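Homework help board

Subject: predicted structure for assignment chain

Our instructor gave us this sequence and asked us to write out the predicted structure in token form, then describe one feature. I got the tokens but I'm not sure how to describe them. Can anyone check?
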Amino acid sequence: MTGITASGRTAIAAVVLLTAGLLAGCSSGGKGAPAWTAEPGTSPASGAATGSAGPSPTASAGASASAGATAAAWKVFTDPAKTVSFDLPQDWIAQSVEPDKGTLPGAVKIEVKDAEGTYLATLQTGLPSSTAASCPASARKSYVVVSSVPVELPHSGGEGTIDPHVVFRVIQGYRYFGSYGITNMVGGADSKACQLQNVVQGLAGKGNYSFSDVRSLKAFAPDEKVAPAKAFDTLDQAAGYVNEGAEFANVQRMLMSLEIKN
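My token output:
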């Protein structure tokens, strides 16, 4: 794969043994070099992949729910109707805004920003089901799961779904584009996709929900705006953002704390 540095190639070689250990039921503690596995459905506790293996590698940060240092002080946000709650750093801002048109009655939409007012994520409930867009083989791009941690949340199953996971995934275009969120939708059995959905298929009658920076990640064109998704020159940079940065550690802890009420 292009864009991988010499250190990245060394990491890939090194984690072959780590992956073998995970498949045997061992845990790495979620730190150090990423472990290359098969699909975002890998359970850090058991190492058993719930998705189908494909030819392209994926990277999992392991069992850690906070790879970097997180904020010292946290608070709890609950919407006025007490339908959702989650933790966030004390100096971050969570604000209820008008839900998108077409959402179900009682839907909520909450935007999260850091202390400087920089957008980080949106939680939206009551999303209607949508039919997947056509994705011809020629348009599919390789993607990598850099981090995947299971989380207990209400969801419905079915073909193309897994148990909910907090993920950070990267799709390859002219750069490596990354996004974090909660999903129970498999991106693609062969580790190629046109888009990666940061959406959880909710319980019957409740609608779907999303807690992510972008609801759908794709390989952007050079003339398209990438933010709030991330862009990296190499997979090493993406792994560094996950394993070393405080921003992702805080975001991941926040996403892991989500509770959907009633």
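Reply (TA_rk): Your tokens look well-formed. For the description, you could write something like this. Residues 1-67 have pLDDT under 50 and may be disordered. That's the kind of observation they're looking for.
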